[in-house]
UniProtKB/TrEMBL annotation:
Source organism: Aminobacter aganoensis
Taxonomic lineage from the root: Bacteria, Pseudomonadati, Pseudomonadota, Alphaproteobacteria, Hyphomicrobiales
Annotated ranges, domain ABC transporter: 20-251
Keywords on record: ATP-binding, Nucleotide-binding, Transport
Family statement: Belongs to the ABC transporter superfamily.
Keyword Phosphoprotein belongs to the record: no
Protein name stated in the entry: NitT/TauT family transport system ATP-binding protein
GO molecular function: ATP binding; ATP hydrolysis activity
Length: 270
């Protein structure tokens, strides 16, 4: 990729303050001699929602783990709010496919757990009002003393959103958070996620296998090549916000889906 093409992935032409920056991030897994990522450049601007989509095994989860600071890159650097990411940080929020709530804790106790781990029980108790406000934000008002086994899958993921937001992260890293839900719940939760991100001006980065999900949620969709993964196309999604599920029938939406599908069908090669 030449310098001009590379610059096209720098914030994908979106205006805004850079929050997250990856410069030449590469990853090889030495033990199996696997070259997973190849010098990825990425800038996420404040309040933007970006997605990455790519073939299985292309390095999406590896990229997310590096961004989260749980895996060191072999080459390159990662900056969040201008400081290097060299390990896990309190200003990075993460959400996975499974909500992984502790069954013996109430919803409220699960939500304040990151604070309890970080600052102790007293600090966690001081966050109960904040946790209740978050429950309100995600539509779970009054569910504070309920145990996880009384929550549906969608409700558990709402609680996981609260747990992610309680530390006031600068960026949200989302690894297919709703893929274990049925299609209707997933669509609904995606719209809820959009609402929450818009209300909090959150900067979000989503890994997904669903092209429609990437298009309906994102300002920019990054298409990744097969391993070693790198971005082969950054597509700005020019649909108004808030997005609605009706927009999925818009010809423009269909055009974005077709364009991404064609890129992936070609093997997303450079
Ligand atoms: N800890 C590890 N040790 C060795 N190889 C690994 C490790 N983790 C991932 N890999 C390899 O790195 C490559 C990228 O894996 P990764 O999980 O990042 O891909 P992915 O795009 O998220 O895949 P999928 O879409 O199937 O979830 C794969 O070939 C995988 O086998």
């Amino acid at each position: 990729m030449n310098a001009l093409q590379r610059s096209a992935f720098d914030g994908a032409g979106l205006a805004g303050r850079p929050v997250y920056e990856l410069r030449g991030v590469a990853k090889s897994y030495a033990r199996r001699s696997i070259h997973a990522l190849d010098r990825v450049d990425l800038t996420l601007t404040e309040g933007s929602f970006s997605s990455v989509i790519g073939p299985s095994g292309c390095g999406k989860s590896t990229l997310l783990k590096i961004m989260a600071g749980v895996l060191p890159p072999t080459e390159g650097s990662v900056y969040l709010e201008g400081t290097p990411v060299t390990g896990t940080r309190r200003d990075i929020g993460m959400m996975f496919q499974q909500a992984t709530l502790f069954p013996w804790r109430t919803t409220l106790e699960n939500i304040v757990l990151p604070i309890e781990i970080r600052d102790g029980k007293k600090a966690a108790r001081a966050m109960h009002d904040e946790a209740r406000a978050l429950l309100d934000l995600v539509g779970l008002k009054g569910f504070d003393s309920v145990r996880p086994n009384e929550l549906s899958g969608g409700m558990a993921q709402r609680a996981a959103i609260c747990r992610m937001l309680i530390t006031k992260p600068a960026v949200l890293l989302l690894d297919e958070p709703f893929s274990a839900l049925d299609e209707l719940s997933r669509d609904f939760m995606n719209m809820e996620l959009q609402r929450i991100c818009m209300e909090r001006n959150a900067t979000a980065f989503l890994v997904t296998h669903s092209i429609p999900e990437a298009v309906i949620l994102s300002d920019t969709v990054y298409v990744m090549s097969p391993r070693p993964g790198n971005f082969v196309e950054a597509i700005n999604i020019d649909l108004p916000r808030p997005r609605t599920l009706d927009m999925m029938t818009d010809p423009k939406f269909g055009e974005y889906v077709r364009r991404i599908r064609a890129r992936l069908d070609k093997g997303a090669f450079l």
